[in-house]
Design goal:
The chain is built from 4 helices and 2 strands. Helix 1 packs across helix 2 and helix 2 packs antiparallel against helix 4. It has a domain of 60 residues. By secondary structure, it is mainly α. The radius of gyration is 17 Å and the shape is globular.
Length: 145
């Protein structure tokens, strides 16, 4: 057992009493790498086979989606919502319906839109200048004193 916080479940600063979400763009390696690995498993194991039909010019998808920072951010937020809203203990039995309506549908529309983060990619081709984001400045981060 380790004393390291489990950032995939959120983190509460012991001395401050505040909490921040485990949003992937706020993580540094190796936590980022582990969270991305888990996200890839969920996207490829649940989202792609269950919800994303064959890509087309009207419904884009990139097999290298994890190299698109905006796609990573949106899909991670979608996954966080899925984790919460598919657990009857936290959301009751209507959670999956809320997840589909409020999270899945808008996220997929944005990702697959003609001007979305996967717009430069077509079936079988990957055409975006990829670079992973650096540290994201945020109110969730604080400088260590």
């Amino acid at each position: 057992m380790t004393d390291e916080p489990d950032l995939s479940k959120g983190h509460k600063a012991e001395d401050e009493g505040w909490q921040y979400p485990p949003f992937i763009l706020l993580l540094d390696p190796p936590q980022y790498d582990e969270e991305l690995r888990l996200l890839i498993e969920w996207v490829e194991g649940v989202l792609v086979p269950g919800y994303l039909a064959e890509p087309s010019s009207d419904a884009r998808w990139c097999h290298l989606w994890f190299e698109h920072p905006v796609a990573v951010a949106r899909l991670h937020a979608l996954w966080l919502a899925w984790q919460e809203l598919t657990d009857p203990a936290t959301c009751g039995y209507t959670g999956p319906s809320v997840w589909h309506r409020d999270h899945l549908d808008p996220c997929v529309r944005e990702l697959r839109a003609a001007s979305g983060p996967l717009a430069g990619c077509t079936k079988g081709e990957h055409q975006v200048d990829h670079r992973m984001p650096g540290i994201v400045p945020s109110a969730w981060r604080r400088e260590d004193a």
